[in-house]
Design brief:
Blueprint lengths: L2 H34 L8 H20 L3 H10 L9 H20 L6 H22 L7 H18 L2 H10 L8 H18 L15 H31 L1
Helix pairs in contact: 1-4, 1-8, 2-4, 2-6, 5-6, 6-9, 7-9, 8-9
């Protein structure tokens, strides 16, 4: 296994650990709120659902790359190469998916019209591509359909943290466990280091990695934003405590 593979697998393992710690924290928070008859926990269900949507897109597109037809088309298009897929990463991603589902089931049910509209807007062009492909109305290959799902995965990986920022802003409470910031920064650090030492050609890196610079930079920005939000909330709580 190459170093870039180790770093990216390490990144998703950290995110799995983060999900386990978040599950324990939210469970304790629910028990505390029930005893004190308090309301929101500050954890965005939209963030969790968008994270799940991103993971499912990644797993789906990755599995489709194993189809013989897709592999043949990929080989013709990209220098006689087979689609590079990291199997350990895929297995860990399945575990990550299960943990995210547990986190969603842990929350109070809320139908999210905005998220539904956001997802539908993304899938409408995909439906149109399928129509062109089915009726041979354009030169659309099966690989093009899978590549569109791959592109959606990377796009949603860039924005899935934004709903949590909004939730903290409006609820004025975080809901994230104490070390969420540091584990997520650690995962981004692994992805950064993997890119930094990577000397492969762009078409040799695993397609199911989320180690693209735009994803790392944007998620670093969102994570730092959440850090300052929670720091401000903590300082505000300390001032309130002293006043009492």
């Amino acid at each position: 296994m190459r170093l870039i593979d180790l770093f990216n697998n390490g990144a998703i393992i950290l995110r799995c650990i983060s999900s386990i710690l978040q599950y324990k924290h939210t469970k304790q928070q629910h028990q505390h709120n029930q005893q004190r008859y308090q309301g929101p926990t500050g954890l965005s269900t939209t963030y969790l659902k968008l994270q799940l949507f991103t993971i499912l897109l990644s797993i789906t597109s990755t599995c489709f790359y194993f189809l013989p037809e897709v592999q043949d088309q990929y080989s013709l298009r990209f220098f006689n190469q087979k689609p590079p897929i990291d199997i350990p990463y895929l297995i860990i991603e399945l575990i990550y998916c299960g943990l995210t589902i547990l986190l969603i089931l842990q929350q109070h049910y809320e139908f999210d019209y905005e998220l539904l509209a956001f997802i539908v807007i993304q899938l409408v062009p995909f439906g149109y591509l399928i129509k062109l492909w089915l009726y041979n109305q354009s030169k659309i290959f099966t690989l093009d359909l899978i590549d569109y799902l791959w592109l959606l995965t990377k796009f949603n990986a860039c924005v899935y943290l934004i709903p949590q920022i909004y939730r903290i802003w409006f609820d004025e409470c975080s809901g994230l466990y104490k070390n969420w910031i540091w584990l997520n920064l650690g995962a981004l650090g692994f992805e950064f280091m993997g890119n930094f030492i990577n000397n492969n050609q762009w078409f040799e890196d695993a397609l199911n990695f989320n180690n693209y610079w735009i994803i790392i930079v944007l998620n670093l920005l969102w994570t730092i934003t959440i850090f300052f939000q929670t720091k401000f909330l903590k300082e505000e709580e300390e001032v309130h405590y002293k006043e009492v």
